[in-house]
Each structure stands twice: as C-alpha cells, then as structure tokens.
Amino acid sequence: MGRLIVLSLVLLLLCLLPPRGDATPYEPTWESLDSRPLPTWFDEDKFGIFIHWGLFSVPSFGSEWFWWYWKKQKKEAYIKFMEMNYPPGFSYEDFGPLFTAEFFDADQWADLLKSSGAKYIVLTSKHHEGFTLWGSKYSWSWNAVDVGPKRDIVAELASSIRNRTRLRFGLYHSLFEWFNPLFLSDASNLFTTKQFPNAKSLPELYEIVNQYHPEVLWSDGDGDAPDTYWNSTGFLAWLYNESPVRDTVVTNDRWGAGSICKHGGYYTCSDRYNPGHLLPHKWENCMTIDKKSWGYRRNAQLSDYLTIQELVKQLVETVSCGGNLLMNIGPTHDGRIPVIFEERLTQMGKWLSVNGEAIFSTKPWRAQNDSVTPEVWYTFKPKENVLYAIFLNWPSSGFLLLGEPKGIAERTEVKMIGYGEPLKWTSLGEKGMVVVIPQLPFSKLPCEWGWTLQLTKVN
Prior knowledge:
With 459 residues, this protein is α/β, with parallel strands linked by helices. It folds into two domains: 30-358, Glycosidases (TIM Barrel); 376-456, Immunoglobulin-like (Sandwich). It has 13 helices and 14 strands. The strands form three sheets. Strands 5-4-3-2-1-7-6 form a seven-stranded parallel β-sheet. Helix 4 packs across helix 5 (76-85) and helix 6 (106-115) packs across helix 7 (153-164). The radius of gyration is 25 Å and the shape is globular. The N and C termini lie far apart (68 Å). Belongs to the glycosyl hydrolase 29 family. Residues 368-456 form the Alpha-L-fucosidase C-terminal domain. This is Alpha-L-fucosidase. It is an enzyme of class 3 (hydrolase).
C-alpha cells in the first residue's frame, strides 16, 4: 500500500509539471542545429523588407561601407567628399550627433511597410560600424539612445509593427565591427583570443533577443573569423532551446567564415543571390532597390533604382525557385523613407493585392519556368491542386503558349486573376496548351507589371 501511495504521488507530480514537448534539445553542433526544421511561417510568407539605417545614413554617399572605404581603403572619392564637405579633423564618430532622426515616425513606417504587402521586416540593429539602434549596455554609449536621436529606434519600430500590422519583426546584427579595438586585437592574435565576442558581440545578441523578441535573426559580417571564435553554435543552441522566440525564430547562414550557404536555418549564399533554379535547401534573395548600395545615397541617380517591373520579376523568379525575397530600402539620417522607396513599396503592395495568392503559401512546381515561352514562371498550391503561371510580358498576339502544363479537356479551367471570366484554351497534347488572353484596354488590366493565370486540374 505504501508503494502505491508513493507511485500515485510521483504520477501526480509528473502531471503538474509543464509539458516538455516532443522536440529534443539541440546540441551546440552544426549537425544538431542544422536538423532543426525551419518554422513553417518563413516559407509561407515569401516576402520581406530589409531596412539599412545607421550612421552611414548621415554622409549618405557611396554606400553603407563609407567608413571602411574612407579610412581603411582610402578611396579617393570618399577622401575628396570629406575634404569638400567637412572640416579638417572631422572623424566618423562626429557623425553620431548628426544622426538626428527628427522625422522618424515608427507608426508611419509601419503603415508604409504594411502597404508593401510584405509579411516580415528586418531592421539593422547594428552594422559593421558598431553603432547600435538600441541603448545597448555593451555599446559604450555608441548607440542611438545616448547619441544622436536619443531614442530606442528598435523598441519604437518593434512596438509599431506589432501594434499596427501583422508583419513579423526581425533584426539584422553584424558580428564584427571594422575598427573596434577588441576585435582588432583578437584578429592580430589570429582569433586565439576572444575578447570581442565575449565582451561585445555575444552579449548584444542575447540582449536583442531577450528585449525585442525578433522572429528573424539576420547575422552578418564574420570578419574572416571562424564560427568557433564567435561561439555561434553555442548561441544558436540557446536560441533554439531556451530563448523567448525558440519556437518561431528563423536564422540565416552567416555565423562565421565558411558557414555561408552551408549552415543555418536558411541560406543567403551571397548578396543579391538569385540562382534561377530550384535549390534543395530553403534560401533567401536579399537585394536592394538601389543597385549600388544598401544605405541611402544622396548621390544616387534615378537609373540606379530598380523599376517596379524589375522588382516584380525578382519576386516571381525567387518564389518560383523556392526562395524568399528580402527587398532593401535605406532611410535618411533624419528618419524619412525617401519617396522613391515609398513608391516602390506601394507599387509592390498594389501588385500583391491582385497576385498575392500566386506568391504566398505556394510551393515550387515541377518546372520553375516555361520551356517554350520566356518570362513565364510557375508556383503551385498542392492542397488545392492549383497551378499559377505568372507571365511578365503581355502577348500582343492574344495567345499565350505554355509548354509545361498539360490541360485536360472538360476538366481544366483557366482564369486570369483579377479578370472575372474563364479563359478559353486549347490543348497541344504533350506540347502543352495555348491560352486565349483577353484583349483589354490598359485601363482594364488587372495590374500593370505582370499577370497571373490560375490553372485548376492540369495534368
């Protein structure tokens, strides 16, 4: 009887304990960490907005690598720019008080980002210059709370995004800092010492995760140091096992020299990576509307910006090949999103309001693009058995030849999203099908920069 009472008490205590779930804790090894399934939301959401904002937005010349090109590479254009516009002895640190952000309105940003049709955003919490957009305890007053705007930019934007939109909030964080003396000391020791990651980089990562709960953690800038120097696997094990975002957070592949396109939650492989074919691992195309810079440039020309037609093409190609598109904008030092970026964001939102069903929650089809007609890209929804053919060039002949899908007589239905009537089509047997495209005046087109056919019950 005594044993029965003890057993009953043990069972009662087990019932009162919180459930541990089925997941085995991840070990601090790449083999274990890479086995973690990517949270499903990331593949479903497809499209995000990158925001590069920092002290480089003050000179807003050349690129966000201004400090490096000026002081390390000593490029003539940057030296001349400083000589012509700033007094002798002016240092990069002197840009701090000029990063004023007086027009930064987090609610306004949130509304604009929502209008883009994107599903997540990634803000640069700290770039390679080391200046943090939150009041980090580890930044030695080199941050937006102590210098410049004297505001917690990360907190303000996170709050507005979560209160006004359904977008997921993410943060970019640079592992290294170009001119941090601790990092330079470790580098001179061939990374046998770890002063910088232990005192600066790792504490910052724990800090932003615990304070702001980002659901995307976009790591960058390894400084040619291996992941063992950064203790990346140790941090990621904590992130996946114990952090407040352990169930939903996604991470990229930039966690130390040699890890890119090899380890991490999803692959970026390189900036502006767009392979044009299906990959076996989830990937992201991080790219810029400004072809030459991630940060805002006052010296940019109109021709330097991608058109909305080019951006739609990037999105369609990327999603058809199984990737996500992370499209970058660069705000000004005073907190404005320049009107060229505002226009592109709202144009993309307008396009997605019509064609979003062919983008979000889709899967790659057996063929990513058409074998006969150029600039036709496919996406697929298996549960609904719906195939989407997104064509980027309007056929002047009135006929669109599709070489990949095989229509089935009296079963297959073809519609153009945004146009009410079913479209006529003719089977070409194994050679595909021909769809009759309605001859519409420009003002009656469903959208202006790419159109989608919805094909149900194709072979």
